[in-house]
Amino acid sequence: MLHFLFVAAASAGDVRWSLDADGDGYGDPYAYTIAPEDDRPTGYVDDDTDCDDGDPGVHPGATETCDAVDQDCDGLDDDGPVCPFTSAWYRGHNYLLVNAARSWPDAADVCARYGYQLTTLYSSEEDTWLDGQVDALSTLKWWIGYHDRTSEGDWEWLDGSTDVFTNWYVAEPNDGYGTGEDCALLNRFHPDLGWNDEPCDHLERFVCESGETLLLFADNDGDGFGDPAGGRLRHSDVPDGWSTRGDDCDDTDPTINPAASEHWYDGVDQDCDEHSDYDADFDGHDADFAGGDDCRDGDSTVNPDAPEVCNRIDDDCDGLVDDDDPSLDPGETTPAWLDADGDGFGDPTVPVAICTIVAGVSGNDRDCDDTDPAINPYATEICNTVDDDCDGYVDDDDASVDPGTYGTWYADADGDGFGDPDAATLSCEPDAGGVGVGTDCDDADPTVHPGAIEVCDGVDDDCDGLVDIADPGLDPATVPLWYVDGDGDGWGDPDRWVRDCLPPPGTVGDDTDCDDADPAVNPAATEVCDGYDDDCDALVDDADPSLDLATRAAWHVDGDADGFGHPDLTRAACAPASGEVSDGSDCND
């Protein structure tokens, strides 16, 4: 037994004291404490060589006895001459003929310590053989494992074997000592080593035998397998006609036993396994040709209870194979997905349980649009706002986009929807402010672009390469009238004009000259007394409030109509009134 103690830390002068639980003066090497050298704890010694501190008869120096115990703690059981024995083999059992006297109970204990038992004799052959073994050793008596210690007169073997053989000497057993002869021995004092009973406490030599007590079954047909319903006995040996196996299903026929080969479909259970003779594959179903429902007896994976799997076999015997069987196990199918557009790539959202890939089904789930065969992982990414190759990137975001599908985009700085042909880029989508038309001839003016109205402004407004009057598309409403200025006074003749965006030579934009032959007559001229409308305001001379008064003449009343007027009766005007003359020298009008 191991003792676990809390051991205080040693200090100078401390020693190790070992527990001596059995008081034999020798201590347990695994149970110790630390204490001062002059203060030995009670029950402790300064020795730690005891190999069993629970038995005072076991310690170094003890006397070794024949009991399978190491009394002297030298690591050896029964060493030296204390337990001499001879070993012999018979019919697969080992026998120890121990030439040391012990009582019957002690002898049985010694045998047990070695893993043996006092011998059991099952036949005259074994008894004769053992007689020869002990005869060669001595003329002494030898204990065997037979006794009636449990119930007087009811002899039994120590290992529980059934009585099948005895060899009592004449008049034995006789309980002759009168004190209880309850143990049997081989007595070499008898001529044939017949058995006799003696008191169990006598000290005699003894025979140990290896093996265990066996339950035996009668083997009538000699095939090595016994009849479970026949005779039985318990013994440490196997006599002829007996077997340790009690599973023969026909003990009258040596060709029928658990070790026999089964001959299928003959109605005979040759190997005694109680299995149907028509179920050769042990799947629990008889062959269909023998009235069963197994369509392939010989293959245990094929029967009505089997799952239908992909193997081109009708696994469940329902007449349907693989994909044709609605009960097909999905876990056994090939991973597949619907390929509705037939491009060879499946829809990841529509898995299909199938054994063989066929049209309309794909072995991969990489299609990102199963309605368009042009969209799949092998397609070319083009500029169309669609992820053609199913890589998660669209158009310009996809490095693999086909540049041949790029559009040309033009900067539209003035935002009129027409781009600068000299500021073009290639891509799927335009940059901010880019347009797909690069025909703007002035990208700084939003009023100038193709489709604009050409007007008279000296600019090619509609970008057709024609300016103003040269452009047939010119808006006539924007073309001004130019008037002929024949007298070069800067004022035009309203009755003579031409239409043009720019004034032709000799024309002006004004049409208010009332006499284009006289440069002194125009709206900016000064009205003078000359009988003309000089400033073209439709008023002449005195009728024109803007008349230059300095140009008027003095007119005299000519009362006597003699052509000479009164010097004091005068009027300033451009023209004389009736009865007025320019001469004012009449001294008597």
Which helices and strands appear, and what pairs or packs with what?
Elements: E1 14-19, E2 32-36, E3 44-45, E4 85-90, E5 93-102, H1 104-113, E6 117-118, H2 124-135, E7 141-147, E8 156-157, E9 183-187, E10 195-198, E11 204-209, E12 214-218, E13 232-235, E14 242-243, E15 334-338, E16 351-354, E17 361-362, E18 407-411, E19 424-427, E20 434-435, E21 481-484, E22 497-499, E23 507-508, E24 553-557, E25 570-573, E26 580-581
Parallel strand pairs: 7-11
Antiparallel strand pairs: 1-2, 1-3, 4-5, 5-11, 6-11, 7-8, 7-9, 9-10, 12-13, 12-14, 15-16, 15-17, 18-19, 18-20, 21-22, 21-23, 24-25, 24-26
Keywords for this structure?
589 residues, 18% strand, disordered N terminus, eight-stranded mixed β-sheet, mainly beta
Approximate strand percentage: 15-25%
> Percent helix among the residues?
under 10%
Structural class: mainly beta
Average pLDDT figure: 89
| Main sheet attributes: strand count, strand direction, barrel closure | 8 strands, mixed
What's the count of strands? 26
The arrangement of helices and strands along the chain is EEEEEHEHEEEEEEEEEEEEEEEEEEEE
Number of helices: 2
Alpha carbon gap, first and last residue: 188 Å
Q: Which regions contain 5 or more consecutive residues with pLDDT less than 50?
A: 1-10
Q: How large, in whole angstroms, is the Cα Rg?
A: 72 Å
* Shape call: rod-shaped
